[in-house]
Amino acid sequence: MDPFLVLGFGLLCLFLLSLWRQSSGRNKLPPGPNPLPIIGNILQINFKDISTSLTNLSKVYGPVFTVYLGMKPTVVLHGYEAVKEALVDYGEEFSGRGKLIMPEKISKGLGIFSSNGKYWKETRRFSLMTLRNFGMGKRSIEDRIQEEARCLVEELRKTNGSPCDPTFILGCAPCNVICSIIFHNRFDYKDQNLLVLMKRFNENVKILGSPWMQICRFFPALIDYFPGSHNRVLKNVSEIRNDILEKVKEHQASLDINNPRDFIDCFLIKMEEEKHNQESLFTVESLLVTVSDLFAAGTETTSTTLRYALLLLITHPDVLAKLQEEIDHVIGRHRVPCMQDRSNMPYMDAVLHETQRYIDLVPAGVPRSATCDIKFRNYHIPKGTTILPLLSSVLKDNKEFPNPEKFDPGHFLNESGNFKKSDYFIPFSSGKRICVGEGLARMEMFLFLTTILQHFNLKSAVEPKDVYTTPVTKGFISLPPKYQMCFIPV
Q: Number of C-alpha atoms within 13 angstroms, CB side, residue 60?
């Protein structure tokens, strides 16, 4: 038979199969735009700003609607009520991780980020317990962050008040905190091991946020059969895992089960406790993926938030002045800031919350999936359906936050100037899969930013009015535009 006829027949069958799959069951799903065969609704999505595209569709189809990103349906949740109802009220039913082709290829169902079911629950529980109770070692997490904050200040002093791009330095600080928690040691900012680690992580974040990777996410076959930047991601991950494995071997050789030094020790002790359990979920491979997940989540998000906070402060000198006045009043110039200070610093608390709200780091949220067949708002959502909670629609709600596109710490202050909580503040997501590193990130952001402002005046390298502060959206992630600033010692 003519090969072109075979190809044409195959494409026709694929077309008809796509048409049948999209039409069957659509009547029970939430409403949405009519999908095209095979490609679904991707022509209606701007891959450089997915969140805005979906927000525009919500104006037509309501707070719960369905889009086809490829051949499979995705149920989108828009607005506080819909997101809260799904992630909190139906927390267990929507606790699955949605399909993410690259994370799945990287983790193979292990770790915290992409895993599901019993494995996910046990690994998450263990990781949370270890991070929260790290006082079991000789030093607490707060001690480690305070030490790193001092090192960060010394590194910033080396800039001598000259204009610099703070991206690298602000990336090293949270990375070192994670290294201290996982490996029991930090690196000098010029250490080649740290430089290589940072380079690999930064390269992966850049690639994974590219439009090409968003397209591959909806058409997984592209990754399996076509060359592309995804291969560089896999190579970086493999090299990072090899480095972690060397550390694991060193820990195995020096392990003292009565004196765990760090996360790896705690994991190895758990492995030893369960060595006779044939179904144990704690293996070396699981350890490598879990540590990689902690690195990825604990480095990029915190450093990006800090970088954005400094950008907003040099463009809002009135906010910067109030912060430094509060620091002088509560802490002074010489005492080391600690977490107890936060309760006495409502303006700093408000600025940190407003920074996270304004930058909207992951506007479309991280996909969830239905763990069982669910009846949600009179719609039938089958098990395994991808759920996309638009965090941006909550963080930018104009009723809760007047003029949400404006940076205004007053969004989190009451009339008396005291800090005001908001249920709409969900940058770490919500429900069963809320970010496992939330507590660590909040501690780092407070201690790092407070310590920087305690020792330096901040100045823009150009006129503040000429600094661009609007987020640069990269797929599912919002990043600050590049800028330079001066750290002037006080």
A: 11
At residue 353's C-alpha, the angle toward residues 351 and 357, to 5°, is 115
pTM: 0.90
**Half-sphere exposure of 269 toward its Cβ, with a 13 Å CA cutoff?**
15
Which residues have CB under 8 Å from 370's CB, separation 6+?
Answer: 93, 94, 96, 381, 382, 383, 384, 385, 387
By the 8 A CB rule, do 472 and 478 touch?
A: yes
Q: How many CA atoms lie within 13 A of 224 on its CB side?
A: 7
Q: What is the pLDDT of residue 26?
A: 56
**Residue among 380, 428, 385, 430 nearest 98 (CA):** 385
First to last CA, the chain: 81
What is the rounded CA–CA span in Å between residue 440 and residue 302?
9
Q: Are 110 and 290 in contact (CB under 8 A)?
A: yes
Cβ distance 348 to 452 under 8 Å? no
**For 40-69, what is the HEC assignment?**
ECHHHCCCCCHHHHHHHHHHHHCCEEEEEE
Strands 386-390 vs 73-78: parallel, antiparallel or unpaired: parallel
pLDDT exceeds cutoff 60 at 323:
yes
pLDDT of residue 202: 83
DSSP states of 441-455? HHHHHHHHHHHHHHH
| Alpha carbon separation from 475 to 204, 235, 401, 467 (Å, rounded) | 13, 21, 25, 23
- How far CA 406 is from CA of 1, 352, 357, 449, in Å, comes to 64, 15, 10, 21
Contact residues for 434 (Cβ-Cβ < 8 A; gap 6+): 428
pLDDT at 136 over 50: no
Residue showing tokens 């930058």: 359
Average pLDDT value for residue range 370-384: 94
The torsion region of residue 251 among left (phi > 0), alpha (psi -120 to 50) and beta comes to: alpha
**C-alpha closest to that of 34 among 66, 63, 74:** 66
DSSP 378: T
Q: What is the rounded distance in angstroms from the CA atom of residue 360 to the CA atom of residue 424?
A: 12
| Cα separation, 17 vs 19, whole angstroms | 5
Nearest to 282 by CA among 133, 131, 122: 122
Helical pair 284-314 and 230-254, crossing angle rounded to 10 deg: 110
Query: Which DSSP string do the residues of 400-438 spell out, in sequence order?
Result: TSSSTTS--GGGGB-TTS-B---TT--TT--GGG--TTH
- Say how far apart CA 78 and CA 167 lie, in whole Å: 32
For residue 214, count other CB atoms closer than 10 A to its CB: 20
> Using CA of residue 253, residue 258, residue 264, residue 266, what is the dihedral sign?
positive
Helix residue ranges, H only, 229-374 = 230-254, 263-273, 284-314, 317-330, 346-359
